[in-house]
Design goal:
The chain is an alpha/beta fold. Helix 2 packs antiparallel against helix 3 and helix 4 packs antiparallel against helix 7. It is globular and about 70 Å long. The protein binds uracil (2 copies).
Amino acid sequence: MRLRDIMPTINKEELNRTLEELERSLRHLAAVGIEGFNCSAQSLKKIQQWGRPMDRTAHRLAKIRADLGDCRRCKLSASRKNIVFGEGNPSARLVFVGEGPGFEEDQSGKPFVGAAGRLLTRIIEAIKLTRDQVYICNIIKCRPPGNRNPQPDEIQACFPFLKRQLEAIQPDFICALGKFASQTLLGSEQAISKLRGRFHDYHGIKVLPTYHPAYLLRNPDRKRDVWEDMKMLMQEYGYEK
Ligand code: URA
Ligand code: URA
């Protein structure tokens, strides 16, 4: 997939023009012997890489995945089949954060691919985006046995890696799916029914908590609330473009 296919909202041509100009200027300064600028080969190489912010983020995400390794930091490692790291656009402006992998996610290593995942895909499409344009991940990366709730020590062991992923991606928005994602990201103990419906802040990123799609499958009446939340999200997402 090419950069322009998955980074539709960044004016890449303008960025590349600026970077080309800057590189040309620095080469010129180096050629005429003007000192005081860093015109080393290393610096010029670095400038070339500025033109590929997605590559840089992808590289940072790959490093975080490598640091996670064959993780044994919590007891979920004993029963998991696959670590579910997260997937999507490294330059996403919107990240969905769920709770943790279920059976199908554990089997495949991909987030939100089961029944709840299919509903999430429809929610993403309802706000005129695709799964490829956003990034999708979870508070914990390994499946709790029998899909039980994540425990505090498991969240504590895993959350630092999600923090690093969010730092690398630097999205404008996080949609926190359900109680665990919302409470963990916001450091709150408030009920999801109280947290949802408005934006909160996570290190300068706008966080919108909403009900978890698995909860919606059991409580379809609540889809109306999620749709209200998604309309808010869509509006802000559009404004900030
Ligand atoms: N539920 C979640 O919270 N995350 C997934 O990836 C799948 C189901
Ligand atoms: N409880 C949860 O964990 N998530 C929801 O979305 C609703 C209730």
